[in-house]
Amino acid sequence: MPLLAGWNSQESGAGSVLGRGNQPTPENYARAVRDIFKDRADEALQLYPGKTDAEVQQSATDLASDRFIGAATWKWITLHGRGGKPPVYRYFYTRPRPAMRPEKGTAGPATGAAHSAEIEYALGNLGTNDVYAWTSDDQKVSETFQGYVVNFVKTGNPNGPGLPNWPATNAGPDQQVLRIDVDTKAAPDTYRERYLFLDRFYHSGK
């Protein structure tokens, strides 16, 4: 069966790597990575670098997200799509939710797409959630994602008129991934080495 699957840009937070209360500094991050990966820590730090506070925040978020769901979903997609058949369509969802409506709370816009944040976009349910101050860009993302989902349900292929082309990730050597956001487009996977490293690490148990 064809498969459509993917994950979001902030499936988990940096704190799940750094530990509660620890600031995103290079020193705290290096210590946390060494606690997790032991003698493989240097390899991990090459793939998830943390030389500045800002870089630590991003890499710790990436690592937490990969450990939570990204690497496992990548493994599932990879195994399912071996040999080029059936087609596998992989997405990376990056649209953060907007700020909350003033009467609902004070939270500003998110910095990344949190776990499950894509569901209401994909199903066209933004209008039923009055917590967030949805914008025209959010509606655009929702319409695009809905189009892909409807086409896939109908035909096993998400592509259709008016939608950016979404190539199957197992259709060629460069493993195309659809980045879903305001400017939705396919691009080669640039994070494959991260998933291969995590797969080797957890498969070997060290």
How would you describe this structure to a colleague?
The chain has a single domain (3-204), classed as 3-Layer(aba) Sandwich (Rossmann fold). It contains seven helices and four strands. It has helices spanning 15-18, 26-37, 41-47, 53-80, 119-122, 136-155, 192-204; strands at residues 3-8, 88-93, 176-180, 185-188. A four-stranded mixed sheet has the order 1-2-3-4, with helices on both faces. Strand 3 and strand 4 form a beta hairpin.
Task: Name some characteristics of this structure.
flat, alpha/beta, four-stranded mixed β-sheet, Rossmann fold, 43% helix, 4 strands, 206 residues
Mean pLDDT figure: 95
How is the quaternary structure best described?
A: single chain
Tell me the CATH architecture: 3-Layer(aba) Sandwich
Outline, from the CA principal axes?
Answer: flat
Largest sheet: 4 strands, mixed
**CATH homologous superfamily identity:** Alpha/Beta hydrolase fold, catalytic domain
The CATH class: Alpha Beta
Structural class: alpha/beta
The number of distinct helices, counting runs of at least 4 residues, comes to 7
Unreliable runs, pLDDT <50, ≥5 residues? none
Helix-residue proportion: 40-55%
What's the end-to-end separation, in Å?
34 Å
Rg: 18 Å
DSSP summary, beta strand count: 4
CATH topology: Rossmann fold
Count the domains: 1
- Give, in order, the helices and strands: EHHHHEHHEEH
